[in-house]
Design brief:
alpha/beta, Rossmann fold, 4-stranded parallel beta sheet, 10 helices, 9 strands
């Protein structure tokens, strides 16, 4: 049985998507490092082994300047230190790289006097050896982030993208909005059970609270619009390669209306066989 860990070296042309690629590996629970000096590779491998890090992905490219030529010789050490190594090389057409640098207004690491095309040509020449040694070459010229992710998943993990993870968080505005929320809904316009003494100590999970809030026409209209909106949004988020979506639903204290709506929305997603987690952040405050 092969108990070796996996060690992926990501290299390629500047602007071809190396940062995106290493982020995808990080999402797959790899230990990742960007812009590691090739001269430090042997020591880095030993440290990973001592720390019992099983899967590693690192970006090494021409930003290492004169040290880059030491990369090929350093790769041979990986197998000796209990890792199976692969090299992922990313490239793109010259005109695409030019456009990307123009859009981001970033300087090419090898550009002389700001001439980006000269930098691209020089970089290609310096990367010839590592490109020849690559296990997988991906041309990202016409790939969306989602398509690049799928290419990586298929080659390095032998699987397709698994869709989107939806995290629903109910909260109280008096305790602050969740900082990691992608979408925030304020449901303080819905009927508030807090002003009914018999309901104050119940939560949005209780049938009496559900009945109180849902009987109003405005609640029924809002839920329908909320479902319709997410019926439209989720497939388009998936299409663009989004893998995690956090939806925050807030009321005043986070105990009644936000919990009720969060539970209804979670049920809606589950009926569509989507992966959903739900957290009632301020339930016990």
């Amino acid at each position: 049985m092969n108990n070796k860990g996996k060690f992926v070296i990501i290299s390629g042309l500047s602007g071809a998507g190396k940062s995106l690629a290493v982020n995808f590996f990080e999402d797959m629970n790899y230990f990742c490092a960007d812009n590691l000096l090739p001269a430090l590779l042997p020591q880095f491998i030993i440290l990973c082994k001592r720390s019992e890090v099983k899967n590693v992905a690192i970006v090494i490219d021409v930003r290492g300047r004169k040290f880059f030529k030491e990369l090929i010789s350093g790769i041979s050490n990986i197998h000796e230190e209990a890792f199976n190594s692969q090299i992922l090389f990313l490239e793109a057409k010259d005109e695409i790289l030019l456009r990307r640098f123009s859009e981001t207004r970033r300087k090419h690491p090898l550009a002389l006097k700001g001439r980006i095309l000269e930098g691209i040509k020089l970089e290609k020449k310096q990367l010839e050896e590592i490109r020849s040694a690559a296990d997988k070459i991906i041309d990202t010229s016409h790939l969306t982030p989602k398509h690049l992710k799928n290419e990586i998943l298929l080659h390095f993990f032998n699987k397709k993208a698994e869709g989107i993870n939806i995290n629903i968080v109910s909260f109280g505005f008096k305790y602050g909005i969740p900082l990691d929320a992608d979408l925030v809904y304020d449901v303080r316009f819905l009927p508030n059970p807090f002003y009914e003494k018999r309901l104050q100590n119940l939560t949005g999970r209780h049938k009496k609270i559900k009945d109180y809030i849902s009987k109003e026409k405005i609640t029924q209209q809002f839920i329908k619009k909320l479902f319709d909106l997410h019926h439209f949004l989720i497939p388009n988020y998936v299409k663009e390669g989004k893998s995690n979506l956090t939806i925050a639903i807030g009321c005043t204290g986070g105990k009644h209306r936000s919990i009720f709506i969060a539970e209804r929305l979670a049920h809606f997603f589950k009926k569509k066989h989507l992966k959903v987690t739900i957290e009632h952040r301020d339930l016990n405050k």
